[in-house]
């Protein structure tokens, strides 16, 4: 869709008979200030272990190393991510050079091992040479901890699976390997690399970094932002339900969804469920396997706001789409809010069932465009706040110029520069920035097309673009054409015959002649040379 905003009247879908399959939630938080049901469970204490209890010198050394590594990880990955994944990681026993690390669920164990295992091992070995290997083990939560956790209404994919009635399927993740196939399972797990959702603290269910306050607004995203705010302020307002956010990779869709969730929870009195489409499918399959679909269905349909991220994942997953379709209808019929994000608009999501496509597009559809230079710079200025001395303004501008497209990449580049400055203890300058980010910058090197060169050159000398390929020989046309051929040779990987073809099927010797003539003229004519240099900068 071209316009950023599309509003069509809300259609009421026809009543749909109940399906036999229900869905679990990924995150469901109930913010009921007056209720005690949402009180967080007390923090998990890993079972005491020799390594942690500090018995004996060797054990003290292991314990000291472990404490240091935990602190280091927390500092490096940030409190939110740490609390989500590593808070309940315990260490010990330590036998024959192997330190056992334990976590309360299989799911969490697999995840932490895959995502952080290598780093933890390297850090531990660095701190304490006697640690040669690490092993991950599942240590179920203590009964006391389970009791303490009872009565909470939120659902947590990372909590102990065995007796958490809302998430038994999490423990069955390995079984899913058989059902989903290794590739899909790996992809499923890769998809877990989502912003942190704190397991026991509703305050961190949504990534605290992704709020409306930290979202920098500019022309490319102002409509999506306004819609998101509107939904957070008054969910299920006709015309805004469902809210469909779409845009390219790393442009802030997830950020806005988390902002909506956190804002809703802060306002209280709503239950919010957020999950990626991939997890939706994973939970769906798991619920079928565990024969607990009715309960999951009930749970999912009892929320006030359902948010599904990266909806494009459901393309080609017909059964999951079907299930979502019924959930969608049930929630909309009941006056609940739905928010969906995807990389394309509903009309461009080919592979979606038509009835689902039309429903997804029947509320508010808002897109996030690629950020402009100004927005990119504003985001960088915002992110560097408080640490301006590390990355000077000229470097920020350089980044904003060179790294277009994904905000994720832009912010990642800035973080790399900050880390570098902190490591070497001095601010980065343009030269170091270019060196540190050389891989990223190379990937963003613009590949100029011959058409673009022809257009710019024609614009500059005020001739028609068609003259670039015409057979006219008057100097006012021939000279710009030769200049464009020269630039095409400089700025594109095309061969002389390729370039000749792009200029009205000319012979490669004509291109050679043009390049020579332009070189000679640049040496003689300062004004012409300046024009060429300017065009070169503009296009390159
Ligand atoms: N306007 C913005 N202001 C501040 N930060 C932003 C903005 N847009 C994106 N970001 C940041 O860029 C990163 C990527 O954003 P996010 O994960 O929300 O993108 P996405 O559109 O969901 O990407 P994907 O398509 O990969 O799911 C996040 O760190 C987010 O905070």
Automatic annotation (TrEMBL):
This is Chromosomal replication initiator protein DnaA. Residues 1-59, 142-164 are annotated as: Disordered. It comes from the Bacteria. Its main location: cytoplasm. Residues 1-173 are annotated as: Domain I, interacts with DnaA modulators. Domain I is involved in oligomerization and binding regulators, domain II is flexibile and of varying length in different bacteria, domain III forms the AAA+ region, while domain IV binds dsDNA. Oligomerizes as a right-handed, spiral filament on DNA at oriC. Plays an essential role in the initiation and regulation of chromosomal replication. ATP-DnaA binds to the origin of replication (oriC) to initiate formation of the DNA replication initiation complex once per cell cycle. Binds the DnaA box (a 9 base pair repeat at the origin) and separates the double-stranded (ds)DNA. Forms a right-handed helical filament on oriC DNA; dsDNA binds to the exterior of the filament while single-stranded (ss)DNA is stabiized in the filament's interior. It comes from Formicincola oecophyllae.
């Amino acid at each position: 869709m071209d316009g950023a905003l599309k509003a069509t009247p809300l259609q009421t879908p026809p009543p749909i008979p109940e399906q036999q399959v229900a869905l679990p939630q990924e995150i469901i938080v109930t913010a009921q200030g007056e209720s005690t049901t949402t009180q967080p469970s007390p923090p998990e204490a890993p079972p005491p272990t020799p390594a942690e209890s500090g018995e004996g010198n060797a054990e003290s050394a292991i314990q000291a190393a472990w404490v240091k590594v935990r602190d280091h990880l927390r500092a490096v990955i940030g409190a939110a991510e740490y609390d989500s994944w590593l808070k309940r990681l315990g260490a010990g026993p330590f036998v024959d050079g192997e330190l056992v690390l334990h976590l309360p669920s299989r799911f969490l164990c697999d995840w932490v091992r895959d995502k952080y295992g290598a780093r933890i091992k390297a850090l531990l070995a660095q701190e304490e040479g006697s640690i040669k290997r690490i092993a991950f083990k599942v240590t179920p939560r203590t009964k006391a901890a389970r009791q303490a956790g009872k009565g909470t209404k939120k659902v947590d994919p990372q909590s102990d699976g065995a007796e958490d009635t809302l998430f038994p399927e999490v423990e069955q993740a390995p079984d899913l390997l058989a059902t989903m196939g290794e590739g899909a399972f790996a992809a499923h797990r890769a998809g877990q690399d989502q912003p942190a959702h704190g397991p026991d603290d509703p305050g961190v269910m949504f990534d605290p970094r992704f709020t409306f306050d930290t979202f920098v607004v500019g022309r490319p995203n102002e409509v999506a932002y306004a819609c998101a705010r509107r939904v957070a302020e008054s969910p299920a307002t006709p015309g805004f339900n469902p809210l469909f956010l779409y845009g390219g990779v790393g442009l802030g869709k997830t950020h806005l969804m988390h902002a909506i969730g956190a804002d809703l929870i802060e306002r209280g009195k709503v239950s919010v469920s957020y999950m990626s489409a991939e997890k939706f499918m994973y939970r769906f399959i798991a619920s079928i396997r565990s024969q607990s679909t009715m309960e999951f269905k009930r749970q999912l349909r009892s929320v006030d706001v359902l948010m599904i991220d990266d909806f494009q994942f459901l393309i080609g997953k017909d059964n999951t789409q079907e299930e979502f379709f019924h959930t969608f209808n049930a929630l909309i019929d009941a006056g609940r809010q739905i928010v969906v994000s995807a990389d394309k608009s509903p009309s461009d999501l080919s592979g979606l069932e038509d009835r689902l496509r039309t429903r997804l597009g029947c509320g508010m559809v808002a897109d996030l465009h690629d950020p402009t230079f100004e927005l990119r710079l504003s985001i960088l200025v915002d992110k560097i706040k408080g640490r301006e001395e590390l990355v000077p303004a000229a470097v920020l501008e350089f980044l904003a110029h060179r790294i277009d497209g994904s905000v994720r990449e832009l912010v990642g580049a800035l973080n790399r520069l900050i880390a570098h400055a902190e490591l070497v203890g001095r601010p980065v300058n343009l030269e170091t920035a270019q060196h540190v980010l050389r891989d990223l910058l190379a990937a963003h090197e613009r590949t100029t097309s011959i058409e673009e060169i022809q257009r710019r050159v024609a614009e500059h000398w005020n001739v028609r673009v068609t003259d670039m390929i015409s057979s006219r020989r008057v100097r006012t046309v021939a000279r710009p054409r030769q200049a464009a051929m020269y630039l095409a040779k400089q700025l594109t990987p095309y061969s002389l015959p390729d370039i000749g073809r792009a200029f009205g099927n000319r012979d490669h010797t004509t291109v050679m002649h043009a390049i020579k003539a332009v070189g000679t003229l640049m040496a003689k004519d300062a004004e012409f040379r300046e024009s060429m240099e300017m065009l070169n900068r503009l296009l390159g």
